Amino acid sequence: MMGGHHAASGAAAWVAVASTAPYALGLYPVSPLGVVSGALLTAGAALLPDLDHHSGTIANSLPPLTRILARITEQFSGGHRRGTHSLLGLAVFVALAGALGELTAEVGGLGTVEVGAGLLSILLMGFALKALKIAGGAGRSWLLAILLSVFIALYAPENNGWLPLAVGLGVAVHIVGDLLTHQGVMILWPLRIKRPRTIASMPLVSKLWKTSGCLSVPIIGRAGSWREWAIMVPVSVYAIYGVIEAAFNSLRGWLA
Fold it and tell me: Which one-letter DSSP state was computed for residue 201?
């Protein structure tokens, strides 16, 4: 799936789960401002698994930091669409986010500042800006990523455990998105379960179970296909509408 669509799916997932609007599920209700800040972070988290490719778009989002992290991640994850695109990878990302979520500070006049979320957001906002083609050169990318991260640190949802939830949602929708492509993902990594030769010639099996051990449910086919656009355009509209409405609700609350 294309990077911009990964980001949109992450934001949409957060809006669906955290917003209390009639069009959302409201399973983890947060304030309107929490919807905005959480959606931004989840959009970035939805690109986190692609840090496993040292020459990919994400690796070049905040140089040289992301290039270094991408090489390290690629080495430990076994390559692209392996460890970071697995259930184990999801668990590791959530655990790391949980640890960072504990890093907070009380600042006079500002209240509780989510320091850990802010630090993680610098990386994630860099990913999102690059995937959405918003930032230009490295200097502008760093500046915008830091500014957005300060906003997230100051106006993060007040709920406990929001950071691992947001990261978990983002990573999960990324894995599902890539599962729906022809290439698929190695969801059970480091286990590499090859399909038996006795059923390898069956047409349906060959589409769902790759020789590499990856699993695929190729509903959208290749990345960037018309089927992907048909699914992701309404998802993107939903995410944008949810964030904009939450932002206006926050503004009305301040002015009231």
Answer: T
Q: Which of 6, 22, 59, 36 is nearest to 224 (CA)?
A: 6
Distance CA(9)–CA(6), nearest Å, equals 5
What's this model's pTM, rounded to 2 decimal places?
A: 0.93
CA 140 to CA 95: how far, in whole Å? 30
Other beta carbons within 10 Å of 88: 17
pLDDT in tens, the chain (256 residues): 899 999 999 999 999 999 999 999 999 999 999 999 999 999 999 999 999 988 888 888 999 999 999 999 999 998 888 999 999 999 999 999 999 999 999 888 878 889 999 999 999 999 999 888 887 788 889 999 999 999 999 999 988 899 999 999 999 999 999 999 988 899 999 988 877 777 767 777 777 888 778 888 989 988 889 999 999 999 999 999 999 999 999 888 887 6
Residue with tokens 């600042």: 107
Q: Quick one: 138 exposed, middle or buried, by C-beta within 10 A (0-12, 13-18, 19+)?
A: middle
DSSP state of 46: T
